[in-house]
Amino acid sequence: MAKSKLVLEYIFDHEAAQPNQVFLTQPLGGGQVADYTWAQTLDQSRRMATHLKSQGFEPGARIAILSKNCAHFFMAELAIWMAGYTTVAIFPTETAETVRFVLEHSGASLLFVGKLDIWEQQKPGVAASLPCIAFPLAPKNSYEGWDAVVARQQPLAGRVDRAASDIAILMYTSGSTGTPKGVMHSFGRITLASENIVQDINSRIGKVEEKRVLSYLPLAHVFERAWVECSSWVDGKTHVYFAETLETFVQDMNRARPTIFISVPRLWLKFQHGVFSKMPPKKLDTLLSIPIIKGIVGRKILKGLGLDQCLLAGSGSAPIPAELIAWYRRLGLNLIEGYAMTEDFAYSHNSTVAINEPGCVGVPLPGVLVRISEEGEILIKSPGQLVGYYKRPDLDAEVFTEDGYFRTGDRGERRADGLLKITGRVKELFKTSKGKYVAPAPIENRINSHPFIETSMVSGVGQPAAFAIVVLGEEVRPKQKDPAFRKEVEAQLTQLLAQVNAELADYEKLQMLVIAQEPWSIENGCLTPTLKIRRSRIENEVNTKLDTWYAGKAKVQWA
After folding, report:
1. In which order are the strands placed within the sheet that holds 182-186?
2. Is 211-425's fold the same as 429-558's?
3. 8: left (phi over 0), alpha (psi -120 to 50) or beta
4. How many CB atoms lie within 10 A of CB 262?
5. Residue extents of the structural domains in the chain
6. DSSP letters of 359-398?
7. What is the DSSP string of 251-313?
8. pTM value?
9. Distance CA 496, CA 267 (A)
10. In 71-155, which ranges are continuous DSSP H helix?
């Protein structure tokens, strides 16, 4: 039986076949960029691999990367793999406490420190005894720099052979449900998942001269790692651009003009709110209802977002309101929703041209098996399935069924045509004093579709009825001190509450909407690095206020 081709072999093939093709484009600040061809990328990686091998770490040693997305993240990962080691990427927004936990739990032998915004807060989490190397875009530090290391090394020669069973990546989950867990992915499984991702993309966009993507979602997250980094390595025809800062995001988008663009619901909603800040929703809706100008208006808006050349747009990581997908499709953007997890290397479900519906997350991708348990939990077998949890055989026993299906923790329903609908998290279900379970996610999606709302959380464990905390949109918050505007907000949200409750069963109906005092963020601990809400954290913070809120008569209250 012929040996399967692995991801490193694809990379070596691209290095040989198209050495002068630009692969990575890195902003340097002030409008300047650095382009790296396949030959230049591999030359740097090979030199760093020589250095890593010379350190004498054990085979499969864990080498960590703490960095925002940049070209040297790609280079470092290749160097780690070619040196015979395993990559551990840490979210660039993590606290010192989590950085310390991941480094210690993984037993990291070395850390690459890269492009970061809060390094001074994170630095205490890095042991003084841990060897560190700084990327060129790293903040000020005392470590030896990447350029100095590669300048004195010879490139590692030849084609490095890694076994399919070798662990390539140790991915730590973002911790929305507790302590981060280390998910082990092997070379064989990430390659198979990446090959299938490339085939899926190609089947949707056809033959194009150049695929362009903007890498800005955290590479420490599986979504970006699989659908941008690893798929570009397998494909060989993708030009990867990197974002510089949040402030330059529009310029970064216009530089890349991505043909493929993936994001998360929170950012798709933010883009929409940005459009609404320039054109009222009712006026835009009217213009999009006129056939003769609908296309012109849609193209103009997409061009402003940098998405006018986008052939495929995807949303994942969390549920997205069906109305938001429908809105983007009216503009002419082929936005589809998918569903996957860290544990299946982001390879599970996606919508197709023939089978799709806003509110559903698609059908199983080739090679994926799915069923719904008697309790309503989604069970999946995927080509990208994890090998197991690092140092946690107890968790392996919990998450796999006897016949090898992974227990996702998500509740769902399947239609006759195979479309999957996520109805909530198994552990997020809660009971009010009425004794029936409430699933928060579907209700939150209804609330989040309102233009005044950035995000929301439905709760109410043991209370007479559920309630929702809402965070006002970025464009709305500066006006909330104006008494007249506060009345408008209250009127709008009172109407929203009535509309949402009209669609819910009696035991699901919300007693009130409570407006949060400040936006939820990664920094204040209310959001994970992938922008999921930390329910327990928020519930603990508002616990002492619940009696007052429930005693109040207003349908909309200010926290």
Report:
1. 144-145, 132-134, 110-113, 62-66, 86-90, 167-172, 182-186, 388-389
2. no
3. alpha
4. 24
5. 35-161, 211-425, 429-558
6. T---EEPTT-EEEE-TTSEEEEE-TT---EETT-HHHHHH
7. HHHHHH--SEEEE-HHHHHHHHHHHHHHS-HHHHHHHHT-HHHHHHHHHHHHHHHT-TT-SEE
8. 0.82
9. 22
10. 71-82, 96-106, 119-122, 146-151
Cα(182)–Cα(179) distance, integer angstroms? 10
Tokens of 201: 């993309």
Structure tokens at 122: 């994170």
Instruction: Name the architecture of domain 429-558.
Output: 2-Layer Sandwich (3.30)
> Under a CB-based contact definition with an 8 Å cutoff, are residues 258 and 213 in contact?
yes
Each residue's pLDDT, cut to its tens digit, for the chain (559 residues) gives 456 899 999 999 999 999 999 999 999 988 899 999 999 999 999 999 999 999 999 999 999 999 999 999 999 999 999 999 999 999 998 889 999 999 999 999 999 999 999 999 999 999 999 999 999 999 999 999 999 999 999 999 999 999 999 999 999 986 555 578 999 999 999 999 999 999 999 988 888 878 999 999 999 989 999 999 999 999 999 999 999 998 898 899 989 999 999 988 878 888 888 888 888 888 998 898 888 898 899 999 999 888 999 999 988 777 777 788 889 989 999 888 889 999 999 999 998 878 888 778 899 999 999 999 988 899 999 999 999 999 999 888 889 999 999 999 888 999 988 899 888 777 777 878 777 778 888 899 889 888 889 999 999 988 889 999 999 988 888 888 888 888 999 999 999 999 999 988 788 899 999 999 899 988 888 888 877 888 888 988 888 899 899 988 899 999 8
C-alpha–C-alpha distance, residues 173 and 183, integer Å? 7
User: Contact at 8 Å (CB) between 361 and 338?
Assistant: yes
Judging by DSSP bridges, how do beta strands 86-90 and 167-172 pair with one another?
Answer: parallel
User: In the block, which residue shows the tokens 């090679």?
Assistant: 367
Rounded CA separation 252/213 (Å): 11
Nearest CA to 61 out of 106, 126, 16 is that of: 106
The number of beta carbons lying within 10 Å of the beta carbon of residue 310 is 21
Beta pairing class for 211-215 and 437-438:
unpaired
Question: What DSSP letter does each residue of 69-84 carry, written as one string?
Answer: S-HHHHHHHHHHHHTT
CATH of domain 35-161: 3.40.50.980
Give the residue among 248, 50, 14, 292 at the shortest CA–CA distance from 24.
Answer: 14
| Burial of 321 per CB tally in 10 Å (0-12, 13-18, 19+) | buried
- HSE-up of 78 (CA within 13 Å, CB side)? 31
211-425 is classed CATH 3.40.50.12780: yes
Task: Give the tokens for residue 264.
Answer: 């998360």
**β-strands 466-472, 453-459 pairing:** antiparallel
Adjacency order of strands within the sheet including 377-381? 369-372, 377-381, 406-414, 420-425
Q: Are 215 and 229 in contact (CB under 8 A)?
A: yes
Residue 263 region, left (φ>0) first, then alpha (ψ -120 to 50), else beta?
beta
